[in-house]
Amino acid sequence: MFGLFKLASRNVFRHRGRTLMTLASIVFGVAALILAGGFIEDTIVETGESMIRSSTGHLQVARQGYWQYGVRSPEKYLMENPETLRRELAAAPGVEDVMLRIGFSGLLGNGRTDWSIVGEGVEPSREKRLASYITVLAGRRLEDSDRFGMMIGQGVARALKLQPGDPVTLLVSTAGGATNLLEFQVTGVFQTFSKDYDARAVRISLAAAQELLATSGAHTGVILLKNTADTDRVASWIQDKLGNQAYEIKTWVELNVFYTQTVTLYRQQFGFLVVIILAMLLMSVSNTVNMGIFERVSEFGTMMAMGDRSSHIFSLIVFESLWLGLLGSLGGVLLGIVLAQVISMVGIPMPPPPNADQGYISHILVVPKVVALSFIVGTAAAVLASFRPARTVSRKPIADALREGV
What we know:
By secondary structure, the chain is an alpha+beta fold. It is 55% helix and 20% strand. The strands form two sheets. The chain has a six-stranded mixed barrel with strand order 2-3-8-5-7-6, surrounded by four helices. The longest helix is centred in the N-terminal third of the chain and has 41 residues.
């Protein structure tokens, strides 16, 4: 086997021009796959991080049934001792911070008209660590000292024609069913990844929200992790810890259906791209491989006349193509990684995704599984391209093969 592989490697470099043409096709295809796969992976990562660090965090814990029935009866799912829960969650390995939130809905008024909103009471200083993907378009973020300050989404600001410093009134129903009204001052206008969220969202301090709703509880505990990859592990740990209590935990993937749909779409697109590039490589490599093999028919005839079996000829041709595939794929991997690094240093300006107003700078990630897949595709294309001509030549009668050299 080693002797066959050595002979195949020597044959590959006998026709350098044709070999370089074949290698160029494989290198281009493999590098293209690495760049396309890295771009898609970066888009998926950016989409996930934007959702995590805009609103949902990595994990959220709430009372059983909150996500299913909490919209209709939020007062029934308030946690009475949220600080106790915070301490338990903060003890989980890999947790960076735990913040409490309380949700509500109501009417926001500017003195002339009202706008239906969905609000959150948050802890401003803790939320700063999480909300790195929230862009402040005007004004500033909430501070702990802003007892009756309010941040509003871009869509809310447009609908009510509000600017930082403007007074607003917020009308909600308390946990006991009464109606409560408080006056706030707009401190800032924000923009997140979701256009729909910005159209209805407002944020006030947790203390103000508790006063507004006449409660000392909270609806959710939002967990920020040190590493997104630890999400499932930490979720499992917390589930075991809180298993006997009336809480349920959801990961950021479960809270963002749009993310799952986006990942499915991009994975299918990349799979289709792999099939297309494999087909293109097969056609381009087959052309040069066929030319090289059929020009050497008399050579193979001579080898068979000297006692080499047809299976040996078949294996030799396949090994030559394997050599081409390995060399071309290796070159494609090196070129793809270098290009990915160079492009990532510059960045690719991207327009806003669907359902968003905010563009971003994309990069090309070097993902080991994408690199491995690209290497396999390049090698497989070269080997598959050699099967048919190798079978044809190896089965050719010796006399006919020798005659082609005359």
